[in-house]
Design goal:
The protein is α+β, with helices and mostly antiparallel strands and 215 residues long. The protein is built from four helices and 13 strands.
Amino acid sequence: MRIRIEATRVYIAAGIAILASVLGLPADSAVAAFSDRSRPEATAIRYLPSLGETQVAARIDQALCLAFSLPQEWRRVPAGNGAALHLAAATGDGAIEIAFRSMRDLMELPQADPITRDAAFLQRDHEGVFGRPAQASSLESVPGATRWTATWIDGNLPSSTHMLTLETYIVRASPDWMLEISISDIDDRDTYDTLVQRVLANLQTADPARCGRPG
């Protein structure tokens, strides 16, 4: 999830911890609230120097594998905050989190379609953790996804604007699964937008056998 504290982007876990601290909430409990997202059964990550790209494939279940490529070298890193797949750029400039949300989690929500249900689920989760509603939120269609954003304002936040904004791209991967894609640790907006477009443009389903063994 993209988190903005003025011009700074940090990992979702760090952002939650910051806001939890400001609001007087236990940070461990706040981060743990997002651990119900499903983890992939297997992941294959391969850097191809000749192409200057990293190929990623993740098997969500026996019938679905998701594949995409990233520019330059990326590595999988531990994701203690419940994100299903967490990648970091080898240069240290950029992080990607992809959460896999089962449609079963969304069945009881009243919204008319899966995308708005997932957005409502995200909104409810975060407002529950932060203990207050967001001062602003939006849901916008973009090529290949729907972008959800929510902003909290608090005088104790460490920025001149005292604002924190979360941003996630929601994709329906199959009738049974939703993706929640978040990118962080990229300060330049053009670079950020280019990476978002790259991920969304080449994200595809693939033969589950392609996913290989867990990475």
